[in-house]
Amino acid sequence: MTKFDCAIVGGGMIGAATAVALGDLGLKIALIEKFTPSNMAPLQPFDLRISAISIHSQQFLETLGAWQFIDLSRACQYNRLGVWEDDFAYTEFHCDEIGRSHLGYMVENKQIQLALWRVLRCHSNITQFCPDQLEQITEHERYLDIALESQSIQSTLILAADGANSQIRQLANIGLTGWDYGQSAMLINVKTALDTQDITWQKFYPTGPVAFLPMPDGHASLVWYHSKAEIKRLSGLSNDQLAHEVTKAFPNKLGNIEVLGKGAFDLTRRHANDYVKGKVVLLGDAAHTINPLAGQGVNLGFKDVKALQMAFAKALGEGQAFDDAKTLQAYEKARRPDNLMMMSGMDAIYNVFSHPSPVIKLVRNLGLFASQRAGKLKSKALAYACGIK
Ligand SMILES: Cc1cc2nc3c(=O)[nH]c(=O)nc-3n(C[C@H](O)[C@H](O)[C@H](O)COP(=O)(O)OP(=O)(O)OC[C@H]3O[C@@H](n4cnc5c(N)ncnc54)[C@H](O)[C@@H]3O)c2cc1C
């Protein structure tokens, strides 16, 4: 039976990044993914799932050798971030405030996954099991027997990067705290009549925010947060009807739009009570799902991967075992508080901005008004959001 140091379940953005990061340390890796990632044709329409990739994540993907494979003609650099509720309280963050050339890139999730798969396919110490999936794990004192659909393998550790509904997290009996926000988010791909923009913006309404994420050639991804019932109604409309509703509901900044595609997601928050249990380690959405309000989900996941890589590198450099309990705890200690802080911050913003009281509304708008003039504090908050605090 083939033996591995780490078996990673899930080859999405986080699982694939983990495979490359740990493969770079010389560890023998098994990557198990249910679905073979399909290639993208250069001219195919933009995927619905895109992410705002922070400077920190971009740098990390560069060190993994994956950023080089991102087709930047399908991605969009953004330099400014606008946030407001009432017009007088419009607040804009600019990359100049943190001495950077940009704040991040909008990139299709699939492009990032494919770029990472191109890199991992060049590592002789990474074996892909794809399409394949986990059936059973049997724990022994020093290793795990892992039954896959196709065959059985052995591994010292199992790393769960199998997403928000992680099967491994459930098999390991790791509990969760979390809730359903009672809202959905609709992602709408549009072609606007305007040139490509260098700004991403978000306007808050009592029903939830609406957001604009720029894409190349005047395209954009719009995000519309609303009650589940309203998003269900909007999902049933034709593209032309939806374009009409968007024009009525969104700020008057889009110009004429054509709706090209749409999809809806329920919003949930989940945080695993432990990131490490015995020989099981959780990363990315398997460990935490955050309100997508500020586009931080996968950026936090990449930070998990980097922290695990650093913990393993330190152990190996000191002649220790990478799977030592102390090493695994160092990973959890590095990530859990940081993820919790970001999740709680997003929830605070979400709760404050959805509060119906006119007094709270005035206070939050004054807060935004003040933050536009907050100098160093404002640039510190921006650097934190970009992952370069
Ligand atoms: C509406 C919305 C907008 C978002 N916008 C942003 C944004 O702008 N910026 C940002 O940083 N984040 C954003 N996010 C969050 C981001 O999409 C997620 O954090 C990210 O996709 C998580 O990646 P992952 O690899 O951990 O999990 P996933 O992407 O869920 O990947 C899990 C992988 O595991 C595989 N898998 C699952 N179970 C098994 C199994 N048993 N065996 C084998 N394989 C398995 C799946 O096929 C999949 O490939 C957004 C999320 C939503 C819902």
List the helices and strands and how they pair.
Elements lengths: L2 E7 L3 H11 L5 E4 L17 E5 H9 L12 E3 L1 E5 L6 E4 L9 E5 H12 L5 E4 L4 E6 L4 E5 L3 E9 L6 H5 L4 E17 L6 E7 L2 E7 L4 E9 H8 L3 H11 L7 E16 L3 E2 L2 E3 L5 E2 L7 H21 L7 H30 L3 H14 L4 H10 L4
Parallel strand pairs: 1-2, 1-11, 2-8, 5-13, 11-18
Antiparallel strand pairs: 3-7, 4-7, 5-6, 9-10, 10-11, 12-15, 12-16, 13-14, 14-15, 16-19, 17-18
Helix pairs in contact: 1-3, 1-7, 7-8
Structural class estimated from helices and strands = alpha+beta
The Rg value, from CA coordinates, equals: 21 Å
Oligomer: single chain
The overall pLDDT, averaged over residues, is 92
CATH topology name of the domain at 3-75 and 105-178 and 269-354: FAD/NAD(P)-binding domain
The CATH class of the domain at 3-75 and 105-178 and 269-354: Alpha Beta
Report the sheet-strand fraction: 25-35%
Given as residue ranges, the uncertain stretches (5+ residues, pLDDT < 50) are: none
Give a list of the ligands. flavin-adenine dinucleotide
H and E order: EHEEHEEEEHEEEEHEEEEHHEEEEHHHH
Count of strand segments: 19
CATH architecture tag of the domain at 3-75 and 105-178 and 269-354? 3-Layer(bba) Sandwich
Shape: globular
What count of helical segments does DSSP give?
10
